Amino acid sequence: MVQNYVFPATVSEAVTFLSTNRGKARIIAGGTDLMLELQDGKNTCDVLVDLTQIAELKNITEENGYIRIGASVTHAQASKSDLILKHAPALAQACRKVGSLQIRNMGTIIGNIVTGNPAADAAVALAALETTAEVTTLEGIQTMPLEDMYAGVCLSCIDSCCQVVTHVKFPVKKKNQGSAYLRMEQRKALALPMLNVSAMVSLSGDTFEWARLIVAPVGAGPQHALDAEEFLKGAAVSDATIVEAGKLARNQAMFRSSAIRGSKEYRRGVLPVFVERVLHAAVEDARKA
Amino acid sequence: MSQFEYVGKSVLRRDGVDKTTGRGLFTTDMFLPGMLFAKVLRSPHPHARIVSIDTSEAEKLPGVKAVMSHKNGPKNLFNASVPMFLTIPQLERVLDQYLFDDVVRYVGDEVAAVAATSEAIAAKALELIKVEYEILPAVFDPLEAMKPEAPELHAGKGCTPEGKNIPGEIVKIPYHDVEKGLAESDVIIEETYKLPVQKQVQMETQAAVAQVDGNGDVTVWSTSQTPHPSRAILGKIFNIAASKIRVLAPPYVGGGFGVRIGLSAKAEPIAMGLALLAKKPVKLVYTRKEDFIASDTRHPGYITIKLGAKKDGTFQALDMKSVLGTGAYCSFGAELPGVCGAMTLAIYRIPHQRYHGHSVYTNTTSCGAMRGFGNPQGNYAMEQTVDLMAEKLGIDPLELRRKNIMKAGEPWCLPYACGTTELAECMRQGAESIGWDRRGTFNKPGSTTLRGLGMAVGTHVSNAWPFCVDYDNAYVTIQPDGSAHVASGVPDIGTGTSTSLVQIAAETLGLDMEHISLTYGDTLGTPFDIGSHASRTCYAAGTAIKAAAEDARRQVLEYAAGFFNIAPEHLQIHKGVITPVTSSMDECSGSGLCQLEEVKEGKGNTVTLEELSYHAHVRNKQFIGVGRIVPPNAPPWHACFADVEVDTRTGQVRVIKLAAAHDVGRAINPMIVEGQIEGGAAQGIGYALSEEITYNDKGRQQQYSMHNYMLPTAEDMPEIHSIIVESSDPTGPFGAKGAGECSLVCPASAIANAVANATGHRFKEIPMTPERVFKALNS
Amino acid sequence: MTNQTISFSLNGEIVEIAVSPSEMLLDILREKMHLTGTKRGCGKGECGACTIIFNGKAMNACLIPAMRAKGADIQTIEGVESAHGLHPLQQSFIETGAVQCGFCTPGMIMSAKALLDKNKSPSKDQIREAVSGNICRCTGYVKIEEAVEDAAVRLRASAVKGGDL
Q1: Where are the beta strands (DSSP E) in B406-461?
Q2: Which of A180, B500, C14, C110 would staple B668 via disulfide (CB 3.0–4.6 Å)?
Q3: Which residue of B has its CA nearest to C76?
Q4: What is the rounded CA–CA span in Å between residue A270 and residue C112?
Q5: Which of C28, C35, C103, C31 is closest to C70 using CA atoms?
Q6: How many Å apart are CA B633 and CA B745, to the nearest integer?
Q7: A281 and A147 in one domain?
């Protein structure tokens, strides 16, 4: 049962709280997942360390060629941010799909990663954007690629009892680059995705310089569709290559069957369609600028 | 266009301010001094015997004031739904539940309950209760449960000897000679359909607050749709006279859709039992998960339709069978199969028909009433088959239906007349709204997004007769100040009856609505009324209120007649003023309104009801009208048209538009009726495309939260065009018929027919989830 | 477990209340402050019945740790009506027939108010987004969306007239 609830004014204070409580204190940012886990007994802690009063964590900024997002930035904020809409439409689209407006007003992008859910909307979008996270402990700040933050399915590498993910960042979008996000869902609001995909492409004329293609939930954390990405490198931007990429993504995708979120046969069956559509959307975004 | 003052007008709801300001109290808002909080321990097994149960540790926990289990609970068999009191005398009631039993029959079945000073302590106490179970074999499908090797769920409690695990009896509706009809048919189509478990998901979970006073009199605030029958059931559970029990809504109820016709699952008796033990008020509020797993769902099952027709499309024969899962306890399982069959047989003029249907016990959550009550299930099966027949015969489905639908005055299998039907007009308007002419013109070859139009028609009832006991009583009393007080035992579960019933009273009395108060939903101040279910409240309670108001009005005019010196039938009351029917309002000493003495002296001919009532009051007289009615029944009719788009690559079905045209007789309050049509349409879309509860092989419900039970959100809604086509039924108050349930009968049928039109594939199983559609189109 | 006394603005007035670190804002509002207008439909942020406006944004009170209310500006349904009478949203909900059982109504009105407070000319899509986190099982959402549009019209008209709402 939570005995104490504190509001550090700085990251340093937050980290100190964690350290003094020796594993019994835990970070809370939005809390839309954490509060339910505490109520259900899936998680316990004695102290909650609330980040929402720390000024430096509330912003989305452009600095040194990166878009940087603080730990208190909510899905609602991101989905409407000019910077995100410009540099990372995939992320804006993904954040827009989370839960409901009430949840989006409270839940955070970084929280979406730290829950460890492989199909978390924002995380799937970020995975296509070459995202790194800044993680602070008493020992200092460490930078870690998004891919390294997943220890297993719904298991984060981040220990919120001693680490604070303060920011995530990804490179600003360059000319001829574009991104997009799509999910398959059973209804249009208040639903987790059955599967989701995100893509970022870099075009050179009518050729893919490279493409990043993310598929979930097919493992621990959002996964790169490696064969498809390899295939698209240097390939022509055409319906045929995009269809092929969809097939390659499907062949590598290891879905499990879920009684609620779709059988593996269904998810494998429709994955190519979503891959095609997200690639087309990313290409269109790249050609817009 | 209405020739009435109040009836037929979209009068604003009288509970609107309460509900939009947060003032309105619901059961879950109730708070009483000294109140305890209850929590229920539920079975994790689908079928088990309780070998031992030890509540001693729980009882010792500080803050715990009462614990109940089968060891100290009441031992009277009951049925938590109204069949306990509303089963017609020709049939045996099925009573198959104890408050706490030593056998549990579904995951979620009640094992014990605790009342404590806080919810947290009560929850902690549950963890301290030690239960030893002996696991018994379980069965989850109704067809499996009928097999000889299946476990028996309720030996000796009213199952028919005609089959295994069948509560009540098998419903058989013979109508002339179906074999002959089939023999005379040129084309016969026979198909079997599988219908899912749907859940009401009303916004306020099951709840009750029970308080016992010093004399042992009990008050129960509850979410029940039927306070009077619920009071009677509680009396029988605890062997307490009903006169010592009061059941009321506080006054608002957060929805029902059938889930609480009778008790609110077991909220009332558990709260009451704990209150009797603890001698303190007890509040029990079901969590959303408990509401999902431990309150009645819709009946799933298998329905077979065999339809025979002549080459020219004339229907000759309909042979219908149903096997419906009723879950672990019977609830409405004996009545519902009858409604399923009767409502399906009643849609078309078919000279030879037969229905054979029944429920079967399974170790799953009990199934009971949900809006439509078997009709949506039967309608789905029938309307798919009618479309198949249309395809086979090469006749447009709209034409085929027009040719065969029931007409007023025609014979049918129901024991009341088909008095009115405007179904043909509903079909005409619905077809026009959806653009039926465009059917078949949408899809280009090679397109992966396919569009189609489909339709369905149906009927329903205006109350529960003859399937259940059904009658109503009401009082109308005129107060000394000329205002009126109406007492009716029905609650308002959200359908606006606390407004529309007052419209009926106002229209009948000739009094402004502001001068009429209504006591409702409280057994203390109202005569017995069945309650709010079966689309009956406006029709049946309205008829009783109209009768009571007419009685009061007659007394008023008889009293007045002496002063006007004309027969009472030549007097009228209009906006609270009594005046002869034929005259205009004569001026009278300034105000235009006269004293009774002036009227007697011939000096004027208008007097207010206020003046008259006070005149009577000081001469020791009050006008009290009583209405006691047994309602007849009348069929509302509805036609639904759907415009859908199917993404064949993902299986997603998008409804573009739904046109729902309803003949509800006279719409007492058109805005309220539209609200019913739209709300039912949304539930119908869910039934068609996304709502279902499935059980895993351990009997565990897979969908038990708002999160994974896929009912539609605002973002999922298409354009809905609700169309009211009025008829005037001679049996209903001001011509009204039932309006609450029809709206959920046809939408799924229409959507499936539209999907078939779009894709060429007919779904014999719903919901048409993306996965099912994808599999069907891509295999 | 140590209760802490926190203060915050509730419907325009500063209030002070003792809360425990494990409590949620919904419990404080309903059980401690007896403001029962905000409803519990699921307790898990999945239905929107408990929607309140928290620092200008619609949120589910069942998910907000009570401690976070410290220093916040919180509006509940009880604060929507003013001394001048019903808010246009309340008026519209009643007149458009958007109220049936009424259990979702407070949450719906708060979601709509959070939108209209910031944007008096919302598009249909924006209205739909604002209420999509609120489940209604009675109305099919049709008249609710109409009511929000109608309220927006009233608010714009009142703004033109220089009305103070």
Answers
A1: 449-459
A2: B500
A3: B22
A4: 36
A5: C28
A6: 18
A7: no
In order, the DSSP letters of C3-43 are -EEEEEEETTEEEEEEE-TT-BHHHIIIIIS--TTS--SSS
Does residue A289 surpass a pLDDT of 80? no
How far is the C-alpha of C91 from the C-alpha of A245, rounded, in Å?
A: 54
Q: List the CATH number of the domain containing A7.
A: 3.30.465.10
The domain of B238 spans 31-136+200-294
Answer yes or no: are the C-beta atoms of B158 and B95 closer than 8 Å. yes
Domain CATH code at residue B51: 3.90.1170.50
Dist. CA B269–CA B285, nearest whole Å: 13
Q: How many domains does chain A have?
A: 2
B chain contacts of residue A271, beta-carbon cutoff 8 Å: none
Do β-strands B245-248 and B218-222 pair in parallel, antiparallel, or remain unpaired? parallel
Distance CA B209, CA B206 (A): 11
For the CA atoms of B11, C109, B226, B636, what is the dihedral angle to 10 degrees?
A: 50
DSSP assigned state of B47: S
Q: What is the pLDDT of residue A42?
A: 87
Tell me which residues of chain B have a pLDDT lower than 70: 1-2, 583-593
Using one digit for the tens of pLDDT, what is the confidence trace for B637-679?
Answer: 999 999 999 999 999 999 999 999 999 999 999 999 999 999 9
Element (H or E) spanning B375, and its range?
helix B375-393
B673 in the Ramachandran plot: left (φ > 0), alpha (ψ -120 to 50) or beta? alpha
**Which residue of B20, B287, B705 is in closest CB contact with C46?**
B705
pLDDT tens-place string over residues B552-575: 999 999 999 999 989 999 999 999
| Residues B661/B723, Cβ–Cβ less than 8 Å | yes
pLDDT of residue B1: 47
The residue segments making up the domain with residue A34 are 1-173
A228/A133 same-domain check: no
Residue A133 has pLDDT above 90, yes or no: yes
Distance CA A222, CA B614 (A): 80
- Distance from the Cα of B259 to chain C's closest Cα (Å) equals 13
Best CA proximity match to B83, nearest among B389, B373, B428, B441: B373
Calpha distance C86→A18 (Å, rounded): 48
How many interface pairs between A and B have CB atoms less than 8 angstroms apart? 50
For the cut 60, the answer to whether the pLDDT of residue C165 exceeds it is no
Q: Is B195 in contact with B380 (CB distance < 8 Å)?
A: yes
Same domain (yes/no): B691, B623 = no
Q: Answer positive or negative: Cα dihedral of B82, B83, B84, B89.
A: positive
* CA distance from start to end of chain B: 54
pLDDT of residue C160: 82
Q: Mean pLDDT for chain B?
A: 95
Pick from A6, C18, A8: nearest CA to C7:
C18
Q: For an interface test with B, which of C38, C92, C137 has the most B Cβ atoms less than 10 Å from its Cβ?
A: C137
Domain C4-79: assigned CATH number: 3.10.20.30
Output B512-518 pairs: Cβ under 8 A, ≥24 positions apart: B512/B575, B512/B576, B513/B6, B513/B11, B513/B14, B515/B482, B515/B483, B515/B484, B515/B576, B516/B483, B516/B484, B516/B485, B516/B486, B517/B483, B517/B484, B517/B485, B517/B486, B518/B485, B518/B486, B518/B487, B518/B488
Q: Where are the beta strands (DSSP E) in chain A?
A: 4-6, 25-28, 47-50, 60-63, 66-70, 132-137, 140-145, 150-152, 155-156, 164-171, 177-184, 195-204, 207-216, 223-224
Residue C40 sits at the chain A interface (C-beta within 8 Å): no
- Look at the block and give the residue holding tokens 């609200």: B675
- For residue B8, give the amino acid letter: G
- Chains with at least 3 CB pairs less than 8 angstroms from chain C: A, B
Q: What is the pLDDT of residues A67-126, one digit of tens each?
A: 999 999 999 999 999 999 999 999 999 999 999 999 999 999 999 999 999 999 999 999
